[in-house]
Write a structure and sequence with these properties.
This protein is an alpha+beta fold. A hairpin with a 4-residue loop joins strand 17 and strand 18.
Amino acid sequence: MKISRNTLRFINTKYESAGDPAPQGVADLVERIGAQLGAIEEVVDFGSRFADVVVARVMSCDNHPNADRLHVCKLDDDGATPNVERDENGYVQVVCGAPNVREGLLVAWLPPGATVPESMVEGEPFVLEARPLRGVVSNGMLASPRELTLGDSHDGILEINRDVQPGTPFADAFNLRNDTILDIENKMFTHRPDCFGWLGVAREIEGIYGRAYKSPAWYTLKPAFPEVEAEELPLEVHNQLPALVPRFMAVALRDVAVQPSPLSIQIHLAKHGIRPINNIVDYTNFFMLETGQPLHAYDYDKVKAKDAGAAKATLTVRYPEPNEKLTLLNGKEIQPRQEAIMIATQGELIGVGGVMGGADCEVDGNTTNIIIECASFDMYSIRRTSMAHGLFTDAVTRNNKGQSPLQTAAVLAKIVDEVRQFAGGKVASAVIDDNHLEAAVMQRGSLYAPVKLGARFVNSRLGLQLSAQDMATLLRNVEFLVELDGDDLVVTAPFWRTDIEIAEDIVEEIGRLYGFDRLPLSLPHRDLTPAPKNPLFELKSRLRALLSKGGANEVLTYNFVHGNLLQKVGQDSSKAFTLANALSPDLQYYRMSLSPSLLDKVHANIKAGFDTFALFEMNKSHVLGVTDAQEPALPAESNRLSLVFASKKPQEGAAYYRAKYYLQNILSQVHSGYEIVAWKDLGDLAQQALKGEQKELPQYAALAAPFDLDRSGFVIDTNEAESLPIAIVGEYRRRVAKDLKLPEYTAGFEVILDCLAVPDRSPYQMQSRYPATEQDICLKVSDQTSYAQVLAVASATLQARQANEYVSLMPVDIYQRDDEPDFKQITLRLTIASYEKTLRDEEVAGILDAITTEAAEKLHATRI
C-alpha cells in the first residue's frame, strides 16, 4: 500500500482536518506508522525528482530547418531559471520532437543542469546540458510523463492543463515539494480494508498523533443522490448471488465528455502506481485510492448493444455458464472458473465481478453514456478467482480484504458528483441499490452490534491506568461512537470498520492508538493458585501405571474402523457414526467400543513372534442413537478402557481368570463397591440392554457384542440402584475368535471409565524438615508366614504414629538358611523422621521394640 505524504496533506487540508500529517518530519512519521499502524517496507524521496523541473509556456513552435520531425520552440519561464541563454525577448530555445508540442502549451521544462527524473529511478542519473541537435542548440528538454515518472506515456510531452504561472517550479505547482512516498506492507492491513484508502490511513495517522480526525461530509451512510436530470437511460440490475454480493449499486449518466483527466489527478494516480487512462477511468481509480472501495465504469451503449434489440441495459450478477469465455481489459481471454462472480448482460459476460472488466464494454474516447458500478464482493471468492486466473489488480487487492458494504453509497454518490461537475455528465437513471444486508446493520450504521466493556477490563489487559474518558478520546479521534456510563464504555464502530466485533478488539484498538511501545513492561496480575487436576487424566494415569506394572502393553489405535471389523465382532454398523470424508476405505466408521481394535491386533502380534502378551488401550467410543433427537443424529461419546490377554500356547486354567485378575487389580485401586456377577444373575434391564433389545441403550449392545455372554462376568456397581454393568470381562464368541484368528487362550475386558470412581486424593506425603533415621529390623518367622503378613503387622504398629512422623517401610531381603528349612528371615528397613523434632536413639529403639512385640504376639516372630 503506497501512500504519499503530500497526498495525505492534501486530503487533510481538503477536508478541513489537521493538514500536515507529520509536522515533526518524515522520520517521525515513519517511526509512528511502523510502531502503531503497519511495517514500512520502503521510503521513497519522490519530491526530489522534480527539484529542477520548471513550468514554461511555448511561445513559438517552428519546424526544425534540418529535421522533419523536430521543432524549434521558444519557452517563456518568466526569467526564473538562471544561467541559461535567452533571446532578446527573454525566451529560451529548446528543440523538441514530440508530436503534440504547439504554441501556447504549458509544459514541464528540464533546463540545462537538470537531472531527468526517470534516470534517477533507474539508478543512472542523466544530467542535461545545452547542446546542438541537428545544428540548432537545445537548452534542456521538454519532458514526457514517463520521463517525469508520472505515467507510462512516451508518445508526447506532458501537457499542463491548468492555469500555472510560467517560471513556477513544477514541484510547487503540483504539490510535489518535499513529497515522500511510504510503502506500507499490505499484510499489515489484511484485517483493515479501510486502510487501503487514503482516508483510512490519514485517519489512523491523526489518531496515533492524538488528534481528532473528521471525515469529509460526503463520506456518510446516507448520501444524497441527484434526481434524474436528463433523458432516461433505462438500467436494470439482477443479482443472482446475494450471498456473495451483498450490495450492488449502479447508476447511468448521459452526455459524458471523455478526455484526459486533470493533471493533478494524473499525478496522484501515478504517484501511487496507477496509469492514467481517461477522466472517467481515472476518477474510478482516484476514489478507489481515496476510500479503498473499487469502482467500475461501463460504456452504457456497448452494454445495451450486447442484448440486441433490448430497450435497456442490464447488469446481471451470476456464475458463468459452461464454456463461456471473456476477453478482459488487459487483452487476456479467460474461461472463468465455475464459482467466479461474473457481471453479464442478458446474454454475454462483460466482466469479472470485483476483479476486472471486459474489453468489449470499456470506456473510451467515443463513449458518451456510462454506467458506474459500486459493489461489495465476497473476499474469499475474489481471492480464489484472482489466483485461478492470475489476475492481480488494484481492485483485487482491496476487494479480497473485504471492503465494508456500508460505504458503497457514499463512494458512488461522490464519483457521480465528480463526473457531473468535471466531465459534463447528467444523471440519467435512478440509483439502483440491490441491498441484502440485515435491516439491523443498516439501522445502526455499523456491521456489528455495540460493544460494552469497562475501563478496568481494558487496563487489566494493557497494564495501564487510563480513565474511561482517556479511552473514549483515543477512540473518538478515529471516529468511533463512544458513550460513557461511569467507568463503562459502549463503543460502536464506524461503518467503514469491519474488524470490531468483541471487547478484545476494542482493547487492541486502545492499546495501538495509545502506543504498544508505551505499555509498561510488567506481567499482569494473575492468581497463582495451582489449577485443579483433571480427574479423568488422573484416573487414566493411575490405570496406566497399574496395568504397566502388571506386564500389559499400551497401544494406540485409530478411532476409525472398517465395516468388516464391525461385522466380524457382531456389532451393528448402522449404529456407528459414518465418516463422509474418510482417510481411506478402511477407516469409514467411528468405533463403538475398543475391544474390536485390540482383537484385530492379536493375530499380527502372534505372527510377529509374541507368544504371550496383554494389550490395553484407553480411548473414546462413539455410538449413534443415544442422544436427543437431532438431524443429523450425533454420536454419544464415552471414555473406555479395554484389555486383551492372549497366549499362543495353552496355559493352566481358563483365560477368563487372567483377564479377571487384571480387572480386579485395577478396580480394587480406583473403585469401591463393585461385584462381578454371571449372566444369570443380571437383572432383566441389563440382559435386554446387552442383547440389544433396549433401543435407547445401544452402547451396551456394542459393548457386549464380541463376548461370549455365558463365559463372561459383568461388573455391577453396588453403590448404584441401577443394575446396568460398568464393565464386562470374559472370553470371546467362537465366531469372533475364528474370524479374527484368535488363539484359544484369549480373554479380555472393557470398562466404561466414566462410571468409575476417580482418585480423590494425591498419594503425596510431605517429608519432614528434620533428619531421618534408617534402621533395619530382621524378624525370624515360620516359612508359612508371608512377607505381606509381616509388612501388615509392622505397618499397623506404625499407623498410630504417622500423624507426627514421616514413616517408610521397605523390604531389604528374605533369606532362608539351609539348616533351618522351617523358618525364614525377613528384613525390613524403617525410615522415620519426626515432624516436630530430631528423634533420639532411644525413641527409635522404642519403635523397633514395639514392632518386635507385635510380630512376636501375632506371628510368633523373633527378632535377630
